[in-house]
């Protein structure tokens, strides 16, 4: 008998007790659940899988957690933009009025810069200790540092609190992984659409909240005294409201179920006995060939994941730049190609767009994704965005009520198309990796996205200021150049959704 035969016999002998023990346990579970799956007692991930197997419907309670946690992390990001100009002015750091925008840009970018540095680490932590602990810690950071930002007494305190808010807020990556782990495969599109919807609504309602509630002693003198805390800290009220909402979400997370498996089987759905036997045999062969049981694919070498992250970053850059440009363009004077709208008018447009996102994602997007799939729907959405953006500069020639109607329709369509694209990239990313890499994968995507979103506001502001100075240029004068460049970014993102650049996960390749 050769040494190879002896090794095979030893491996078979070592595997036999495990197979027998596992088979007995699995048979008991299969007879109980009727699904032929292997669950481990005491594992929270298996408990969720067991519940999904027994309840084929939509998990509304768990989806509510997805919704409120995502909204909690989105609200603080953009709620400061309506009052940031005045906040920087009042802090006295800018020597000239022309310098206010310069200092405001660093405050706006500090959140994304902090999140860029830590998103991957939070994703890895979510894969190690669970989704729930990371979510709870992230919400706690919103309560603390968002409140402190509203109480900032100098410029550097504002910078530091925003940076720490971004660095310690690792919510979005783990909650995307959590969203598809609490539901069955047929509901994954709805789960991720809830993430992108809550995110989009938070980024739209946030500025409306900041615009209406900032400087309450000036805007509502009969309610708020100038001697009160809201008079001494005029930008504290919108931050406090967001923090109170976060505190309520934090308390509700006590009942939030954990989805991460606490044993060696880390698949999204539990493996049956035949799969386990095949895995043991395959592992034995790989030990003989390479001497290692670690066959996990590196995230950076996972091209379906990395290509979808790159596409996600491009469209995220576009969306953040569009958000910055839209408010600047709508509020600028008509002689510069703007619409001369007030901050209240812009807030109303954004609020209507936010409400439409909720209706679209709950009732329309799941059917669209079922028919077209995430890739085709993203391509169609990107194509439709281009003529809409080209039409924006010509709205300056309209007057009310036509202007209001057309602007609201365009904003609703543009924001829903943008969410369609982002949701499609979420689906691609989460189907490109197994469960035990999903938190790290989403953390990696958040790192890239945060970097691009940190660049977008500064870049958009510089381009907008430059365009305002070329009102009589021959090639795309004034704001036409701004929207032309936005369309260039959109076109690049569209091209990157095609092969050979975008590699589609096997389970989605047919779509």
UniProtKB/TrEMBL annotation:
It is found in: Membrane. It is a multi-pass membrane protein. The chain crosses the membrane at residues 64-88, 100-122, 134-153, 159-179, 191-215, 235-256, 305-329, 349-368, 380-399, 405-428, 449-468, 480-502. GO terms for molecular function: transmembrane transporter activity. InterPro entries: MFS (IPR011701), MFS_dom (IPR020846), MFS_trans_sf (IPR036259). Keywords: Membrane, Transmembrane, Transmembrane helix, Transport. Pfam families: MFS_1. CDD domains: MFS_SLC46_TetA_like. Residues 62-505 form the Major facilitator superfamily (MFS) profile domain. GO terms for cellular component: membrane. Gene3D superfamilies: MFS general substrate transporter like domains (1.20.1250.20). This is Major facilitator superfamily (MFS) profile domain-containing protein.
């Amino acid at each position: 008998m050769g040494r190879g035969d002896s090794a095979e016999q030893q491996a078979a002998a070592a595997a036999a007790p495990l197979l027998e023990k596992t088979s007995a346990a699995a048979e008991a579970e299969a007879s109980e659940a009727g699904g032929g799956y292997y669950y481990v007692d005491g594992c929270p991930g298996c408990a969720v899988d067991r519940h999904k197997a027994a309840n084929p419907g939509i998990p509304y309670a768990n989806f509510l957690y997805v919704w409120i946690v995502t909204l909690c992390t989105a609200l603080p990001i953009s709620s400061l933009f309506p009052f940031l100009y005045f906040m920087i002015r009042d802090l006295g750091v800018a020597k000239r009025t022309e310098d206010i925008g310069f200092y405001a840009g660093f405050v706006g970018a500090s959140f994304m810069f902090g999140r860029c540095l830590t998103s991957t680490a939070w994703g890895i932590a979510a894969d190690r200790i669970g989704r729930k602990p990371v979510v709870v810690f992230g919400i706690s950071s919103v309560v603390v540092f968002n409140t402190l930002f509203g109480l900032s007494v100098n410029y550097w305190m504002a910078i530091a609190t925003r940076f720490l808010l971004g660095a310690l807020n690792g919510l979005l990556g783990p909650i995307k992984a959590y969203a598809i782990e609490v539901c069955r495969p047929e509901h994954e599109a709805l789960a991720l659409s809830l993430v992108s919807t809550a995110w989009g609504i938070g980024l739209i309602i946030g500025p409306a909240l900041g615009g209406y509630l900032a400087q309450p002693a000036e805007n509502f003198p009969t309610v708020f005294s100038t001697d009160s805390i809201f008079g001494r800290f005029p930008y504290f009220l919108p931050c406090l409201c967001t923090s109170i909402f976060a505190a309520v979400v934090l308390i509700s997370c006590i009942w939030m179920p954990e989805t991460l498996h606490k044993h060696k089987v880390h698949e999204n759905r539990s493996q049956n006995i035949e799969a386990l036997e095949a895995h043991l045999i395959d592992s034995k062969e790989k030990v003989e060939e390479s001497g290692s049981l670690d066959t996990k694919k590196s995230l950076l070498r996972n091209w379906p994941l990395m290509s979808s992250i790159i596409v996600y970053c491009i469209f995220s850059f576009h969306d953040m730049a569009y958000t910055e440009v839209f408010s600047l363009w709508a509020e600028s004077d008509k002689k510069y190609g703007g619409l001369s709208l007030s901050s209240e008018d812009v807030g109303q447009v954004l609020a209507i767009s936010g409400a439409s996102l909720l209706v679209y994602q709950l009732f329309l997007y799941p059917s669209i994704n079922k028919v077209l799939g995430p890739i085709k729907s993203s391509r169609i959405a990107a194509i439709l965005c281009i003529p809409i953006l080209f039409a924006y500069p010509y709205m300056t020639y309209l007057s009310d009520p036509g202007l209001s109607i057309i602007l609201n329709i365009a904003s609703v369509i543009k924001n829903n198309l943008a969410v369609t694209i982002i949701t499609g990239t979420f689906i691609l990313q989460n189907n490109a990796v197994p469960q035990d890499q999903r938190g790290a994968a989403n953390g990696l995507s958040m790192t890239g996205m945060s970097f691009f979103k940190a660049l977008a506001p500064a870049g958009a502001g510089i381009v907008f200021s430059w365009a305002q100075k070329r009102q009589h240029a021959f090639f795309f004068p004034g704001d036409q150049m701004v929207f032309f460049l936005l369309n260039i970014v959109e076109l690049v993102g569209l091209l990157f959704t095609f092969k050979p650049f975008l590699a589609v996960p096997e389970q989605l390749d047919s779509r």
